[in-house]
Amino acid sequence: MYDPITGQAVIVCENIEYRVADAKDLMRFRENDIKLLGRTQIRSDPQYEVCAKNFTAMIAQITLFKLWSGEHTRVETQLFGPYVGRKLPDLQKKQKKKSK
Questions:
Q1: Cα distances (angstroms) measured from residue 40 to each of 55, 70, 97
Q2: Total domain count for the chain?
Q3: Closest to 41 in 3D by CA, of 29, 53, 25, 30
Q4: Structural domain containing residue 13
Q5: Which of 47, 36, 46 minimizes the C-alpha distance to 11?
Q6: Are 7 and 23 in contact (CB under 8 A)?
Q7: Are 1 and 40 in contact (CB under 8 A)?
């Protein structure tokens, strides 16, 4: 569910509410949690649907690139943009050559 007052996604699980303020915070969840969230739909009022879609899109990216917690190193998960979570072997080789 999306809470328009706080701008947070609200995940309700067995009478416990988890609030996620930023879609990138979803990368802290483990693989099973992300896959469960991917199978459920975020509900919101139609006027806030665009905001809620940010969380849905982030779950799709996390699933596609396996960015859930424990899968990648900290450096890899900071690569947001065109290289989201991918290893960059060419870039790593160039950096090694420069350091020699």
A1: 12, 22, 46
A2: 1
A3: 53
A4: 2-99
A5: 36
A6: no
A7: no
| Nearest residue to 75 via CA among 61, 91, 63 | 91
Predicted confidence (pLDDT) per residue in 27-85, tens digit: 888 888 889 888 887 777 888 888 888 888 899 999 988 888 876 555 454 444 444 44
Site of tokens 């979803």: 26
- Going by C-alpha positions, the residue among 86, 87, 11, 24 that lies closest to residue 55 is 24
For the chain, counts of helices (H) and of strands (E): 4, 3
Residue type, 99: S
Q: How confident is the model at residue 100 (pLDDT cuts 50, 70, 90)?
A: low
Q: What does the alpha-carbon distance between residue 23 and residue 44 come to, in Å, rounded to a whole number?
A: 15
Indicate the residue type of 87.
K
pTM of the model: 0.63
